[in-house]
Amino acid sequence: GRTLLRGPSGAFVVDGAFSRVVAEDDPEPRAPGRTVRRLLLDARLHGVADPRDPDWLGLAYAGTYLAATERLLDGPVARALCLGGGSYSVPRALLARGLAYRVEVVEIDPVVTRAAQARLGLSDDERLAVVHADARTYVRGASREPAIDLVYADAFGDVDVPWHLATVEHARTVHARMPPQGVYFANCIDVFEEGRFLAAYRA
Question: Can you name the residues that pair with 80 across neighbouring β-strands?
Fold first, then answer.
């Protein structure tokens, strides 16, 4: 990606292969007293983070992910997989809370990862593996041992889940790499009153 010279002071602004990636101070009063920064992809909000506190989750869906995970688990799992990195708030929190011994993140755009490292608190951790690849391709070639206990699907193209990540074939590939008690979390956007995409996604 090519770093741009315009933008707020201290902001990360880079044109990646898929979108313009911006990591900057969050102007919204989400959590007074915190250093909150946001990730924008082509001007759409894709996550927030407190770079000083990996345990903090600023968006409701991310909090739901972790609350449900804590409720379902009896202890740390061996392997968790995040399809889509974004602000990296979920993988950071998984490790901070000791919910997984190893977290793999598949993020298609290296510039998004660079933004998280530069402004959102993502740091090197031997328990965290980041792969820059297409999520479906990665899962197809992923090892089956150890099994993937937790999967968090959080990949978007604009406001849509990429079509190839919402197919029966992809779901079966993921399922084949999970144990019987594994849990698959998926974030999607739909019209609440109609739920057409969610109904098709579940099917």
Answer: 103, 150
Distances from the Cα of 164 to the Cαs of 31, 75, 143, 176, in angstroms?
36, 32, 20, 17
Instruction: Give the tens place of pLDDT for each residue, 130-160.
Output: 999 999 999 999 888 889 999 998 887 766 7
- Residue 184 is encoded by which pair of tokens? 């698959």
Residue 79 tokens read as: 């392997």
Q: How far apart are CA 76 and CA 96, in angstroms?
A: 12
Specify whether the CB–CB gap between 48 and 36 falls below 8 A.
Answer: yes
